[in-house]
Amino acid sequence: MECAEWAEEGLLLGSCELDESRKAAYLEHLRACAPCRREAEEYEQHRSRFFTPEILGAEPSQTTSKEILRVCSCPIKKVTSAFTVFTLFRKGAVATVLVALGFFGAGYFVYMASNLPGRNAPVVNNTPNVPSPSAHDAAVPGTPPAALARTDSISTDSLKPAIKGDPAGVTPVTMEKE
Amino acid sequence: MMNLDNPNIDAADQELFDLWRKGDPQGFARLYDKYKNRVFGFLLRMTGDRERAEDIMQDSFIAAYRNIDQFDRTRSFLSWLFGIAHKRTIDYFRHIKVETEHEHDALGSIGSRIDAPDDALSNKRIQSLINEAVDALDPVQREVFLLRELGDVPFKEIAEIMRCPINTALGRMRLALKNIRKELEKRGIYGVR
Fold this sequence. Notes:
The complex is a heterodimer of chains A (178) and B (193). Chain A has 178 residues and is an all-alpha fold. Among the domains of chain A are: 4-56; 122-178, no CATH class. Chain A contains nine helices and no strands. In chain A, α1 (4-14) crosses α2 and α2 crosses α3 (34-49). Chain A is rod-shaped. With 193 residues, chain B is mainly alpha-helical. Chain B has a single domain (11-186), classed as PhyR, sigma-like (SL) domain (Butyryl-CoA Dehydrogenase, subunit A, domain 3, Up-down Bundle), CATH 1.20.140.160. The relative contact order of chain B is 0.11. The chains are: A mainly alpha (178), B mainly alpha (193). The A-B interface holds A 1, 7-8, 11-12, 15-17, 41-43, 45-47, 49-51, 53-61, 64-65, 67-69, 71-76 and B 7-8, 20-21, 23, 25, 28-29, 32, 36-38, 40-41, 44-45, 53-54, 57-58, 61-62, 64-65, 68, 114-115, 117-119, 121, 126-127, 130-131, 134, 146, 148-150, 152, 154-156, 167, 170-171, 173-174, 177, 180, 192-193.
């Protein structure tokens, strides 16, 4: 452009960066200055004919386009603070429930195991009036078993404390040889 | 469709961008189809190598995708995209450690390494002559020219992107136009009126 001071105004006019007052001043100058007007017209002609995306642009390969479309078309996964807190809370809650269930389950198992029938109970013969095999073997042949019942048997009433969980309330069976 | 507040902002682009942001793949696909040739043309002329340009193009779009929340709605989408492409190109040149002299040496052979676009143009000769004239520009002049003419980036934003005063950007553009004119005159296609 012949007038250097106006050349930049022409470029700014093309990019819509001139305010109204500067635009008016520039257009006024163009009306008065033929060389500037000619150059401005030439630039506009070049822009519309030569400096177009069809001429200056270039087509990328299909492979590149497919890859870009594949990656960039995925839904955007946003990690917000609220989501993180919620997730952590949810994970923490699930973990707490699992740990609590574990404690309760283990406690219940220990409780049941410690209270299995006969675990701490004494060995008793709860069949009244039936001699134990040892006592029976030790008996004199011909002696009626009923005679031994008084010493090696125990009444079922005596087991009640054991069943209720008080093994101390049971008197161990003592074997006496006659 | 132009935005009345900022004539450089295309409202249709903003709608497509919003669709993309909401996870609609059509939003991105349409933006990509609209601007892929411009971005690729810019990268091809800045790097002078088709393969490198395609790599940088992928990086640029993926960077845009990852930084989608950082898009400033007061700017145009294309301008933002060209800003990212510019940064990626600078990273590329830093990476390969090409010094200015080597860039100048490479420029002489860019024309032979750039394939002509496949688009069916009415005048392929004019196209190749224009491309040769653009490729013969000094790298900074060529960058300003392509950002402005291919990217529709306003000079104010070109100055921000290139980290220089706006008058420097305008001066480079003037020199670029002057040199293109000289090249076209040499090839006998300047008198277009």
